[in-house]
Design goal:
Blueprint (H helix, E strand, L loop, with lengths): L13 H28 L3 H45 L9 H7 L7 H10 L4 H7 L11
Helix pairs in contact: 1-2, 2-3, 3-5
Amino acid sequence: MKNQDYKSHVRVHPIYHYVLSVLLLGTLVTTIVFMVRSINQEENILLSIILFLMMMIIVIVAVFLRLYPLKAQDRAIRAEENLRSFVLTGQLLDSKLSISQVVALRFADDKEFPELSKRAVAENLKPDDIKKAIQNWRADHNRI
């Protein structure tokens, strides 16, 4: 696998992030245009409203289809990093760390992880700042 670093760690799934997003946006715009035209022409109003509502349902499902697995991954990452912290330092992660900070810390090498996690709490580092501070990158090829 290709080495990861700050510039190359972001992963996307092209079919979901590009194709589906464009199709959803295009279909949503089309249903809105159809609904406005139907209302103005006073024809097919019920059909246009039903199509618009169905499209809104599909958009909501697509959003949650992305968010729910990410929440599950975030919980797993917090558990993994808590275990890692306990193995390395004998202590769990500071509860003041947000989940986004913990997710960013997972890229830190074992040698810099304890100090960087303390620094993240003390300076309230943003996740992006945590990633930029990492010297030895620990790759994560599983999360999209």
